[in-house]
């Protein structure tokens, strides 16, 4: 066992017990206070509440979570359990702050992100990091199996169960390294430059900003750009027809998030991805946003039935340390006309902080940033948005998230971070 791995194991054991004590303390207090206020305090969704709470949903969607995940959110009675991330700390004696200041959160991710989560500002992604970077043998017999040649005879099983004995920890982490030759999509000022260029140089899409810096929402308002006739009828048809059977599959109770009731289909590894027209749309988006197709997540095709919605949320969900970096842009396309003939059609995209709505019109698109123009390392606070429910008809849309760095290469190399980061 290498010293690094040994330290890693010690760290997690020490951390767990200190956290365990703290948690018990809080829990005992919670329990006594709870019983004074209310007799039932349980999670409504036993399977997912804990995971959602760890992902920060208690803060992001307090209304739903208070109702359905009381216990996991620590909202029992009058006492609020501190965020689960309280267990996220720097390892003592490792000089985390100094190392972070020297840039080691990037240059030495495998060590730093586990041992210095706090200084690396990675607490939000604690469980993801533990999954992706942690590396432990799960059986006492691993070393014996290795000596018997199982690492080469049964590589799949051994990779999962005996990565330390088989010396696979480094390659597991390497799948999450940022590939070489991945210049960032945006440096400070580039969002403004790209949006300004779209406004002036793509008249064929009749670009109109719904919000811009110096516009009605103030000097620091983000760009939100609407485009017309971006997707042709044939292209819209290519998305919806290749996804038809995949929507049906998600009907089978594949409830993805407490705040979203639409159905979805990933345009990935199927006839949707293989379709020439969906590839042409991807290249067009890369051209307009000055990005690259490999920096994009696969298209996500959405289907909303009347009354279905996606409550106010923000799209940026990736740690700066991930190979793909932040989601910098969302490019959202409407694939059909929603609520035709209705006096007030539904199905638009409502930008809650800006008070503007992009209507759902076939072929139109809207582009917005999820990070700040002047500081792309920080989330843009003004681009929270929601998918308004259609009233009378079905809504189809296609959505793509563009990262600051290559997404597809690490995703195809099975980097765990990338997969868990997607929702
Ligand atoms: C919490 O309560 C349990 C049983 O009620 C007790 O055994 C345990 O010692 C308590 N823990 C702390 C930290 O007070
Ligand atoms: C955005 O870019 C335009 C055109 O280059 C420039 O005139 C403007 O000052 C920039 N605005 C901000 C807020 O950077
Ligand atoms: C990229 O945009 C330019 C206009 O700026 C256009 O001439 C060119 O055809 C576009 N390429 C693609 C692949 O859409």
Automatic annotation (TrEMBL):
KW Transmembrane helix (keyword) present: yes
Start and end residues of each ShKT domain: 41-76, 135-169
Domain of life from the UniProt record: Eukaryota
Compartments where located: Endomembrane system; Membrane
Keyword match Iron: yes
Gene3D superfamilies xref list: 1.10.10.1940, q2cbj1_9rhob like domain
Bilayer disposition of the protein: Single-pass membrane protein
PROSITE patterns associated with the record: FE2OG_OXY, SHKT
Listed InterPro entries: Oxoglu/Fe-dep_dioxygenase_dom (IPR005123), P4HA-like (IPR045054), Pro_4_hyd_alph (IPR006620), Pro_4_hyd_alph_FE2OG_OXY (IPR044862), ShKT_dom (IPR003582)
GO molecular function, one term: procollagen-proline 4-dioxygenase activity
Record's keyword terms, sorted: Dioxygenase, Iron, Membrane, Metal-binding, Oxidoreductase, Signal, Transmembrane, Transmembrane helix
Cofactor(s) listed in the protein's UniProt record: L-ascorbate
GO annotations of cellular component type: endoplasmic reticulum; membrane
Every Fe2OG dioxygenase domain range: 294-404
Residues annotated as signal peptide: 1-18
PANTHER family xref list: PROCOLLAGEN-PROLINE 4-DIOXYGENASE (PTHR10869:SF235), PROLYL 4-HYDROXYLASE ALPHA SUBUNIT (PTHR10869)
Protein name listed in UniProt: Procollagen-proline 4-dioxygenase
């Amino acid at each position: 066992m290498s010293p690094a791995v040994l330290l890693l194991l010690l760290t997690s054991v020490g951390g767990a017990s200190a956290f365990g004590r703290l948690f018990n303390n809080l829990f005992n207090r919670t329990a006594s206070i709870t019983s004074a206020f209310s007799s039932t305090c349980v999670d409504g969704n036993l399977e997912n509440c804990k995971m959602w709470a760890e992902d920060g949903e208690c803060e992001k969607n307090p209304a739903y979570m208070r109702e359905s995940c009381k216990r996991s959110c620590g909202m029992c009675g009058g006492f609020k359990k501190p965020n689960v991330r309280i267990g996220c700390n720097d390892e003592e004696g490792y000089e985390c702050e100094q190392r972070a200041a020297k840039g080691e959160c990037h240059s030495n991710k495998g060590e730093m992100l586990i041992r210095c989560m706090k200084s690396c500002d990675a607490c939000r992604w604690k469980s993801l990091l533990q999954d992706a970077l942690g590396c432990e043998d799960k059986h006492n017999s691993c070393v014996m199996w290795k000596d018997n040649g199982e690492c080469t005879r049964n590589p799949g099983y051994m990779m999962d169960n005996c990565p330390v004995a088989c010396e696979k920890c480094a390659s597991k982490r390497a799948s999450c390294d940022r590939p070489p030759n991945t210049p960032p999509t945006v440096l400070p000022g580039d969002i403004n430059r790209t949006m300004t260029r779209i406004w002036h140089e793509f008249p064929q899409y009749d670009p109109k900003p719904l919000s811009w810096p110096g516009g009605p929402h103030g000097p620091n308002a983000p760009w939100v750009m609407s485009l017309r006739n971006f997707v042709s009828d044939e292209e819209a048809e290519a998305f919806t027809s290749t996804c038809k059977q995949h929507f049906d599959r998600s009907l089978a109770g594949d409830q993805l998030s407490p705040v979203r009731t639409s159905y979805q289909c990933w345009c990935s590894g199927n006839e949707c991805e293989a379709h020439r027209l969906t590839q042409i749309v991807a290249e067009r988006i890369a051209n307009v946003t000055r990005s690259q197709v490999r920096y994009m997540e696969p298209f996500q095709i959405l289907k909303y039935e009347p009354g279905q919605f996606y409550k106010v949320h923000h799209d940026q969900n990736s740690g700066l340390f991930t190979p793909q970096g932040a989601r910098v842009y969302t490019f959202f396309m409407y694939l059909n006309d929603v609520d035709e003939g209705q006096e007030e059609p539904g199905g638009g995209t409502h930008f809650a902080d800006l008070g503007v709505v992009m209507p759902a019109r076939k072929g139109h698109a809207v582009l917005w940033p999820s990070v700040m123009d002047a500081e792309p390392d920080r989330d843009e606070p003004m681009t929270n948005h929601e998918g308004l429910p259609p009233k009378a008809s079905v809504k189809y849309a296609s959505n793509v998230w563009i990262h600051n760095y290559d997404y597809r290469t690490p995703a195809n190399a099975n980097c765990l971070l990338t997969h868990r980061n997607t929702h």
